[in-house]
Amino acid sequence: MRIVIMGGTAGIGLATARLLAAEGSEVIVTGRDPQRLTAAGNGAAAAKGGEAGGGLVAEQVDGTSEAEVAAFLGRMGAFDHLVLAFSPGSVGAGTLAATDLCACRQFHPCRSSGM
User: 8 exposed, middle or buried (CB, 10 Å; 0-12, 13-18, 19+)?
Assistant: First the structure.
């Protein structure tokens, strides 16, 4: 299975990426921070006994830039799942009861269209 996790270099995105890679999926994580990208790739290699990538590849992409996302997806080819594990600033952060769903819909219209 080929999975793209945008915002997958820290927190729940990275934990999900590592779990899926350990289970045999090909995982591509994206993020903006070069140090986090390197750490994500190195952590996957260490978990696989030094084997490069370990089923997890990290690529620098700013998920808030439509042009960068379009270029990245154009290079990716087919994949099975897309996980969005990021938001700009505090959009979507906090408890569900306190979350402004209108703000979330504006940032993630494709994910929240069924709400």
Answer: buried
Q: Position 70: which residue type?
A: A
| Stated pTM of the model | 0.70
Residue 40 to residue 26: CA distance in whole angstroms: 14
Both tokens of residue 91?
């959009």
Helix or strand or coil: residue 20? helix
CA-nearest of 106, 95, 90, 111 to 6 is 111
Q: Which tokens sit at 69?
A: 């996302």
Helices (H), 53-108: 66-76, 101-107
Gap between the Cα atoms of 109 and 41, Å rounded:
30
Would you tell me how many other CB atoms lie within 10 Å of the CB of residue 4? 23
Q: How far apart are CA 85 and CA 68, in angstroms?
A: 16
In this structure, the chain runs to a length of 115
Give 18-54 pLDDT, tens digit per residue: 999 999 999 999 999 999 999 988 765 555 544 544 4
